[in-house]
């Protein structure tokens, strides 16, 4: 995998430095580190990047400046991958982020996941490569809310959809669930069918299936 | 260390009445809206005095006992409307005025039309009219002494027969005195408000006042704690799990050290998850960021009983109202899960006629009792301090409905 040019926006210095060290260890290049939302927008303008990793709550207002900046970036630069790392399980934030733009090249992860360094690095790579990554905890919340469309899915299909929302490939899902890839494909076809997703290019339908859940 | 957290955006407890405002630092007091509101409050007496004096002069012109009797009768008829006016204008300078205690099961009776003579509220309102008749001239006196005197001084240079040598210092003195007028005006308005409040509800008002102050202080403190946990412990724990994760990369996977570090890593992740729950319980940030509908939907997601949410509001509500309403929903949903045995539950909310109406309904077994320590009484208190009313309907056999109505405007 080619090294990614990364910009990190996080106001806690310790964590920011740690994340930079982590990403560099996996061969990526951190081109800028900033501590607030205006700084993030300026850094993207100045340096350009393959992926932006941003916190939600940042100065000056300590509300959701980081999320707003991420949404603005997704609007202004569809080619830029954006990964939001957050302390909030509340799906409201994730849904807002995913609602803007195509649903590709975007991710919402709890900060807890940074600790699983390998998984975190691979999530960064997946988002940069065009994937959608949503934190499993957030997906669990969503699945609890979406009782009605979900009622039509089997438990296994629900599980597969959860893993799809995390941005896993069919092969990765098969490994995780210890089933064959053909079985995964069958489940995914079932999901597409039950969610009334019209036939289209497969990747597109995948994203649509995930978004259908996130948007409700 | 986390980056400089900057100022905490929670503000301090605001003054709740004119008399409290006078005791604040002059800078804060003079920049606040209290002097202006006190001025408007007292001006109300002036507005009333003009037609009243007119009527009095008219009766005097006509002469005879009949005219005076007609005047008295008019005053008696007008007593209730005037009392209500007196009551209503108190809102200008007393934030606690309408903070009625929340009523569980029944609405508080109030003075209305036609007058109910057995209702104490009717007589209290009439007494307010008496106060107005007795003190209007003082209101106007204070206003003119405090405001008119400096204005008169300031106009000295323009008065005929005044030379610049005496006129200018006088005008300067007037200019200095004008801001000082805020003090007598606000103090008198505050004193007057105290009398009105004593007539309205001698003891109750004081209790609710102190309760409201406590709730405010609690909320400020909770926000601070949430902020400290978020910026401090939570960030440190994230860093810790990250460093442990990195250490795991360097250790031979099957070594004893790797086992220890892996266990520590898991512990740290669990601590992080617990801390996240704790922080949300202290203060839900989504409520501050996105308002009541989003926060209610998230609370419903966490409920073990399926919840249908239909909360549509035209905009954000005052913060205190959002927080009170949010606690009502959370506590009610917790009660539904714990006690009701319900299979379904719904949360409905809308804002109409300047009132937030929120209702949590379930199809459970009913029989909820506010006296049984189920948190319902505490909820009623929370609703009371934002001037709201809470109604509980829970016949044995169900269904149970908790309904709150909180008067409030939509924030711009």
UniProtKB/TrEMBL annotation, chain A:
One of its GO terms (biological process) is regulation of DNA-templated transcription. It comes from the Bacteria. SUPFAM superfamilies: C-terminal effector domain of the bipartite response regulators (SSF46894), CheY-like (SSF52172). It holds the Pfam family Response_reg. Residues 146-216 form the HTH luxR-type domain. The modification 4-aspartylphosphate is found at residue 55. The keyword Transcription applies. GO terms for molecular function: DNA binding. Residues 5-126 form the Response regulatory domain. Keywords: DNA-binding, Phosphoprotein, Transcription, Transcription regulation. This is DNA-binding response regulator. It comes from Sphaerisporangium rufum.
Automatic annotation (TrEMBL), chain B:
It is an enzyme of class 2 (transferase). It catalyses: ATP + protein L-histidine = ADP + protein N-phospho-L-histidine. Its EC number is 2.7.13.3. It comes from the Bacteria. One of its GO terms (cellular component) is membrane. The chain crosses the membrane at residues 38-59, 65-85, 126-148, 168-191. Keywords: ATP-binding, Kinase, Membrane, Nucleotide-binding, Phosphoprotein, Transferase, Transmembrane, Transmembrane helix, Two-component regulatory system. Residues 41-200 form the Putative sensor domain. One of its GO terms (molecular function) is ATP binding. InterPro entries: HATPase_C_sf, Put_sensor_dom, Sensor_HK_TwoCompSys, Sig_transdc_His_kin_sub3_dim/P. SUPFAM superfamilies: ATPase domain of HSP90 chaperone/DNA topoisomerase II/histidine kinase (SSF55874). Residues 221-287 form the Signal transduction histidine kinase subgroup 3 dimerisation and phosphoacceptor domain. This is histidine kinase. It comes from Sphaerisporangium rufum.
């Amino acid at each position: 995998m080619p090294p990614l040019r990364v910009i990190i926006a996080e106001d806690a210095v310790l964590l920011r430095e740690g994340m930079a060290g982590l990403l560099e260890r996996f061969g990526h290049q951190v081109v800028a580190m900033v501590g607030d939302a205006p700084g993030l927008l300026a850094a993207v303008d100045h340096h350009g990047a393959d992926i932006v990793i941003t916190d939600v709550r940042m100065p000056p207002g300590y509300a959701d400046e980081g999320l707003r900046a991420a949404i603005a970036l997704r609007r202004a630069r569809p080619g830029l991958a954006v990964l939001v790392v957050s302390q909030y399980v509340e799906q409201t934030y994730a849904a807002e982020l995913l609602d803007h733009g195509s649903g590709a090249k975007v991710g919402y992860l709890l900060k807890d996941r940074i600790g699983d360094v390998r998984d975190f690095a691979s999530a960064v790579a997946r988002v940069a490569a065009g994937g959608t990554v949503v934190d499993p905890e957030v997906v669990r919340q969503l699945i609890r809310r979406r009782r009605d469309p979900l009622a039509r899915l089997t438990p296994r299909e629900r599980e597969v959809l959860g893993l799809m929302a995390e941005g896993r490939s069919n092969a990765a899902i098969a490994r995780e669930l210890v089933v064959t890839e053909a079985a995964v494909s069958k489940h995914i076809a079932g999901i597409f069918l039950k969610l009334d997703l019209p036939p289209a290019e497969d990747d597109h339908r995948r994203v649509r299936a995930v978004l259908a859940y996130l948007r409700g | 260390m986390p980056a400089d957290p900057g100022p905490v955006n929670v503000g301090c407890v605001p003054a709740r009445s004119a008399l409290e405002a006078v005791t604040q630092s002059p800078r804060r007091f003079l920049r606040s809206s209290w002097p202006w509101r006190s001025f408007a409050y007292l001006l109300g007496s002036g507005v009333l005095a003009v037609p009243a004096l007119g009527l009095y002069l008219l009766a005097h012109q006509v002469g005879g006992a009949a005219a005076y009797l007609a005047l008295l009768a008019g005053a008696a008829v007008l007593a209730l409307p005037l009392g209500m006016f007196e009551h209503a204008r108190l809102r200008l300078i007393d934030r606690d005025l309408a903070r009625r205690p929340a009523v569980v099961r029944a609405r508080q009776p109030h003075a209305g039309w036609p007058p109910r003579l057995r209702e104490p509220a009717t007589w209290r309102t009439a007494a307010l009219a008496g106060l107005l008749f007795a003190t209007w001239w003082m209101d106007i006196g204070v206003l003119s002494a405090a405001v008119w005197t400096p204005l008169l001084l300031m106009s000295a240079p323009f008065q005929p027969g005044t030379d610049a040598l005496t006129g200018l210092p006088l005008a300067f003195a007037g200019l200095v005195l004008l801001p000082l007028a805020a003090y007598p005006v606000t103090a008198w308005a505050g004193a007057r408000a105290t009398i009105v409040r004593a007539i309205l509800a001698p003891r109750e008002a004081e209790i609710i006042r102190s309760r409201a102050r406590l709730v405010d202080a609690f909320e400020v403190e909770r926000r601070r704690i949430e902020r400290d946990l978020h910026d401090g412990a939570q960030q440190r724990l994230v860093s810790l799990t990250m460093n442990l994760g990195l250490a795991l990369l360097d250790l031979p996977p099957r070594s004893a050290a790797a086992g220890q570090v892996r266990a520590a890593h898991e512990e740290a992740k669990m601590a992080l998850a617990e801390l996240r729950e704790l922080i949300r319980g202290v203060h839900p940030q989504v409520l501050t960021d996105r308002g009541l509908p989003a926060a209610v939907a998230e609370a419903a997601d966490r409920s073990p009983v399926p919840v249908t949410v239909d909360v549509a509001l035209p905009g954000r509500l005052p913060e205190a109202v959002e927080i009170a309403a949010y606690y009502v929903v959370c506590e009610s949903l917790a009660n539904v899960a714990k006690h009701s045995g319900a299979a379904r539950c719904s949360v409905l909310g809308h804002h109409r006629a300047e009132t937030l109406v929120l209702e949590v309904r379930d199809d459970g077994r009913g029989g909820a009792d506010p006296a049984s320590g189920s948190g319902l009484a505490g909820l009623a208190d929370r609703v009371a301090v934002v001037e709201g009313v809470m109604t509980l309907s829970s016949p044995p056999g169900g269904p149970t409905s908790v309904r709150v109505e909180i008067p409030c405007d939509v924030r711009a």
